[in-house]
UniProtKB/TrEMBL annotation, chains A, B:
Top-level taxon of origin: Bacteria
Keyword annotations from UniProtKB, A to Z: Monooxygenase, Oxidoreductase
Database matches in PANTHER family: ABM DOMAIN-CONTAINING PROTEIN (PTHR37811:SF2), BLL5343 PROTEIN (PTHR37811)
SUPFAM superfamilies: Dimeric alpha+beta barrel (SSF54909)
Gene3D superfamilies in the cross-refs: 3.30.70.100
The protein, known as: Antibiotic biosynthesis monooxygenase
Organism, scientific name: Billgrantia montanilacus
GO MF annotation, one: monooxygenase activity
Chain ranges of the ABM domain: 26-86
Length: 109, 109
């Protein structure tokens, strides 16, 4: 279960990952769910990781939070993550968009 | 149905809105769904609006995209949106977080 990330005071960085799976929810490869769960676990062990939030209906949105652009660069180049990115492009996603953003303000209850 | 927003080349701004509803999906006030849908429609008519993406499982994530911080400020102060914000705080959300971020890079397929 994804919860609201308990991020520190800004500035920090967000990677907004939006995706559509090739098949619908019932049909998609079981390997996808396991991979997605593994990537959340793996991200949490990386230097500079601050938190992650995820939800999927038809569209899936995962936002991960990081201390710096360098931390994001390292996570993107992680070997196991690179293999997951390759599988995503080749097998799982019909479309996706990755946006790297600098969080400047934050508020909430 | 939410789709991947067709945003222009960065830089632009993102408002990442993460929330938990007070009741579970089956129990929540029907007014919430109508309000959420209306806010998406209303946001799309605002100056500087670039797109919106939304998904909810247990956690809800809505990311709206804007040309400038000024466009975000105007949307936040829109009268009908202010009323929705008040209802959200008082009736619908057990917790939420709003993050305003500057999108610096974007890629995808």
């Amino acid at each position: 279960m994804s919860d609201i990330a308990n991020t520190p005071a800004p500035p920090y960085y967000a990677v907004i990952f939006s995706s559509h799976l090739i098949a619908d929810d019932k049909g998609y490869d079981k390997g996808y769910a396991a991979m997605a769960e593994r990537m959340v676990e793996l991200a949490a062990t990386q230097p500079g990781f601050l938190g992650i939030e995820s939800a999927r209906e038809n569209l899936g949105i995962t936002v991960s939070y990081w201390e710096s652009l360098e931390a994001i660069r390292q996570w993107k180049s992680n070997a196991e993550h690179q293999e997951a990115q390759r599988l995503g492009r080749e097998q799982w996603y019909s479309s996706f968009r990755v946006r790297v953003a600098r969080v400047e303000r934050e508020y909430g209850v």
